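Example pasted here:
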Amino acid sequence: MTLLSSPTVGKATKIKIFSFAGPHMRTFHITWFAFFLCFVAWFGVAPLMPVIREEFHLTKAQIGNIIISSVGITIFARLFIGWLCDRIGPRITYSIILILGSLPVMFIGLSNSYESFLLFRLAIGVIGASFVVTQFHTSLMFAPNVVGTANATTAGWGNMGGGATQIIMPLIFAGFIGLGYVDTAAWRYAMVVPGVLLFLMGIAYYKFTQDTPEGNIADLKKNDPAYRMKAAESKGAFWKACKDIRVWMLFLIYGACFGIEITIDNIAAIYYFDKFKLNLETAGLIAGLFGMMNIFARTLGGYFGDKAGIRYGLKGRVLFLAFALFMEGVALILFSQMTVLPIAIAAMLFFSLFVKMSEGATFSVVPFINKKAIGSVSGIVGAGGNVGAVLAGFLLKDESLTYSDALFIIGCTVMAVSFASFLVRFTKAHEAEAQQEMNESLGTVPTSSETPVPAIA
């Protein structure tokens, strides 16, 4: 008999944050922390850019190219990693990303010119594909009633690394300065720290997680050679995902939220450093507040998406997504026009709330698009985030525009993109299937005679 993971059986129906028991919550915590370290490594050089700019005599256009390189390669990496997750599972995939990704992070200090720095920044961008594995692994572990919240929380707490690095890296840099190193050496040694942590996390991920609630794919195949994951049971699932217009609408939507978040992660420190004449540590601290909002904001997006799904079905999830994205655009326009530091910070936090809620709301919809290709759909949609960042990067490198002008244009674009949400539609049969799974996960209808759905203790 072929084993297929059921839509609800074996998946956790509750998230108990302080629990590490069982594969569900253990995977939950290890996954978000791995993604957190990936973000610290991915954007570790961002708060140090004023120092690097001075050393390599970088122009605004060159900084724009560096921003584009850091997110551009991730587009292709996310597409490939989504396909790979469907084939070999998340455990081995994530371990490979963490271990191999640590190398350019540790060795970026070998850069001695703009060109070599650009190449290392390009290589580091592959780490951004870790997001796909994070969402894929969480989707395999949690039932429909909480999957949006689980996805949003693991991604949000991971994204929090983008804020933490704005605070942590200047402090590590200052620590090396305190040990007697000059600026040009201190930033290089500082980048070794996240690289080493990433390498160690790769070993830990392989040792302490498992692919599915039932176990690792390799072990399950030993017991049953015909085993295959529900997410990968359909041959050609990647191409089916590519032909679905809803996937490309979510691709566009995610570009308008996550793409803008990582753009701000890249420029926030230098934006405050230049516009408000702050020192490196203060600019990094303020920039860090933007990313630290992930501790709750993205979770709110997934939570409200789940609640809308419980009450109004899949259509409710999409409507909430449209609202959050529209408000993100409004908030970004406000932030772009602020010239007084305290008001600019408040506007940035308001914008940060909605950009992260939009991301959480997006991935409260993604698991329901095509259950036979969760990895592929996650990869395509996740790649959209990086396409958005690349397009924003081209705008930011334009010498004729100030950063404020560029952010205003981006805000207007985000508002327009929010209407693409209404093209993400589901058939009545799809809605009925999702409702049945939701009822099972909530325990409002009898489940099959198989093992009951576990509530994590």
Summary: Residues 330 and 411 are 6 Å apart (CA to CA). The two ends are 31 Å apart (CA to CA). Residues 1-7, 446-457 have pLDDT under 50 and may be disordered.
